[in-house]
Amino acid sequence: MGAGISSVFAGQGATVVTCARRAVDGSPYEFHSCDVRDDDAVKGLVDTIVDRHGRLDVVVNNAGGSPYVLTAESSAKFNRKIIELNLLGALSVSQHANDHMQTQPQGGSIVNICSLSGRRPSPGTGAYGAAKAGLESLTQTLAVEWGPKVRVNACVVGMVETEQSELFYGDADSIAAISKNVPLGRLADPADIGWAAAFLASNLAAYISGASLEVHGGGEPPHYLATTNASAIK
């Protein structure tokens, strides 16, 4: 999903800087190795970006994810790592970015990539869902604390078709079947998330802060609708 977000921002003329623990082969964007769970490394990354480019206008906190592990079987170490990656990492990046953005005449914008998993039951990814719920709450708090110089918003993302889709949604036939449950008839393309993030970061959203933009193709209809025989619903 990060590649789709980066592509949209680059296409709109932004200088895109990416980070991860390991480089992605063939990426056209400036890359820095950084584990967002390491606060000292995050500070060094943000300082380096500002030193090299002179300012930091936008941050998109997209790092995250979780393997499927039922909560009864997840260890304390596993849960801690998932929460560090999906919540505390975004907090660390945002804090160090805010330190610079507050000193800039133009301020800055932060976009947090949240998930529907933080708004509904998340079986198999309990710590992830809890962390994403926390990130959406954090978005609202930071918008209050850091305005007016810095705007902070969230994209609440549904199902996205990426290079790892088969791990979560199955093969092409399974994805096609799942897509029928989405009102818009398909899973999101990573660029769909990119355009939503770019809007929130842009001057078109100059009076939007503390908001959550749902990017889920219309949502997921309640399961009971497929089984009920209520005439009013039919």
UniProtKB/TrEMBL annotation:
Domain of life: Bacteria
Molecular function per GO: oxidoreductase activity
Keywords assigned by UniProt, alphabetized: Oxidoreductase
Listed Pfam families: adh_short_C2
PROSITE patterns: ADH_SHORT
Family the entry assigns: Belongs to the short-chain dehydrogenases/reductases (SDR) family.
NCBIfam families reported for this sequence: PRK07856.1 (NF005893)
Name recorded for this polypeptide: Short chain dehydrogenase
Organism expressing this protein natively: Mycobacterium colombiense CECT 3035
